[in-house]
Each structure stands twice: as structure tokens, then as C-alpha cells.
Amino acid sequence: MVKIKSSEEIELMRESALIVSKTLGMLAAEIKPGVHALYLDKLAEEFIRDHGAEPGFLGMYGFPNTLNMSPNAQVVHGIPNSDPLKDGDIISVDCGSIKNGYYGDHAYTFEVGEVNEEIKKLLKVTKESLYMGIREFRTGNRVGDVGYAIQNYCESHGYGVVRELVGHGLGKKLHESPEMPNYGKRGRGKKFVEGMTVAIEPMINMGTKNIKQLKDGWTILTADGKPSAHFEHDVAIVNGKPELLSTFKYIYDALGIQSDEEEEFRGKKLQD
């Protein structure tokens, strides 16, 4: 059953989401060749706690860390380790926080050093597909409209759209109804209404859509060993339209990137 949020609840969720956004922004300045994921994980845990929140993933379903960190051919749910990042790697960093009883949960795939053009294109298309999906998250549309927009765009570039892992509703629980697949048919599935809150997160593979799981019970890999990209935002329906609760602004500030990609989905001016 979908849990509709009041405007007050949406503001509490925005607070939790922005803690994640600021955590990812802090990490953006630290992600470079030679750094290892366990170091970044410790930084993230300290940052979240220092901002009056608790890590959202730590201990959930038995997960041992604050961050899901998934480099290269890992799709999602990678466990941080002590292997140093290398020039040319990419790494998906998925982070959660909980504050005032509500979750924030979003993700960004970072470039490590100099990344080749083929991988840059995968990241660009995947992030563009995220906003195409968000654009369809409005009153009267349905789950399939979001999935179709993401799937159609990514497959038109020859990429594989993961089927087994999906976005989800978000609120007092990390995973609420409805599930938000990155594939689908227009006009199918749950209808969107005012006050719905979801995490939309395309997981897109350079090659096959097929995946496999490591014996650690967590890490998901592409079946063909090719790279995968993952971007995620928290979104609410406010006045019938999609409004971002999370932001990549802090990442872009750290990396010196200029972008207006979020402007059409921004209901409130962000505080620095």
C-alpha cells in the first residue's frame, strides 16, 4: 500500500535527503586514484552522524557498512573494501540516512581520474535517463510511464537495462510501495497521486542487461563484466509535479561542474 505524505512529512524527508546529498558532495572531493572505499565509508559515517542523522544502510538486512560502493562492473550493493581505486575506474556510491524517522537515499556514479569516452557516454546517458524518468512522475501518470522513459532512452543507445533491481517508494521505511522499475509500458501500473515519494534509480549496463551475484550475498555484477552506471534521486509529487528532495549540487560544487539539470524539478531554493 502506498503511503501518501503530508507537506510536513515531505519537508522532513527533504532534510534527510539533503544530508545524503551533502555526504556525497563531501565524498566527491575525496574520490581519486589510490583512495580505498573503506576510508570513504568511514568518512561518510562520521559526516552523517555529525549532521544529526544515522546511517540508513548500516546494519539493514545485515549490511556491514554505511555506503554501497560498486566500482566498474559492479552494478549495486558493493561492500567497501581496502582495494585502492585506480585511474579510469568508475564507482557508484549509494548512501542512505535516517533523521526524524524518515529516510534519504540516493546515489551517484563518480569518475576516478581520467575515464575513457565510452564510459563517459554511459554515465551521461544513464543520468539523462534519470531525469527523463523523473519528468514522468506526476499526477495521473503511472509507474510504467517512468520505466518506459528510462528504458526507451537507454536501449536506444544500445545499453542493457537491469530488470531484477528497481527503484522504490520511500518514507519511514527505506523500501515502500510502489516498486519503480526502469523498464515498462506506458499507462501500466500504479497511478501517481499528490504526496507520493519515491526513489528513482536507473541501473544501466554498457552491455547485457543480465546480472549475477557474488558469494558475499550482496554484490551485484554485470554478467559480461562490462561497466554499469547508477544514479538515484528522491522525488515527491508536489502540486501535481515532480519535485526533487535530493540534489547533486554539492557534488558539482566539489567538482567544479556547472549544471542546470535540476532546475525544472526544484521547488525550493537550496541552502549552501
Describe the structure.
This protein is 28% helix and 24% strand. Helix 1 (7-28) runs parallel beside helix 5. It contains five helices and 15 strands. It has helices at 7-28, 37-50, 117-135, 143-156, 249-255, and strands at 54-55, 67-71, 74-76, 90-99, 102-111, 160-161, 167-169, 176-180, 197-200, 203-205, 211-213, 220-222, 228-230, 233-238, 241-244. A hairpin with a 2-residue loop joins strand 14 and strand 15 (241-244). The chain is globular, with a radius of gyration of 17 Å. The protein has a five-stranded antiparallel β-sheet with strand order 8-7-9-14-15. Strands 1, 2, 4 and 5 form a four-stranded antiparallel β-sheet that branches. The termini are far apart. By secondary structure, the protein is α+β, with helices and mostly antiparallel strands.
Q: How would you describe this structure in keywords?
A:
272 residues, alpha+beta, five-stranded antiparallel beta sheet, four-stranded antiparallel beta sheet, 5 helices, 28% helix
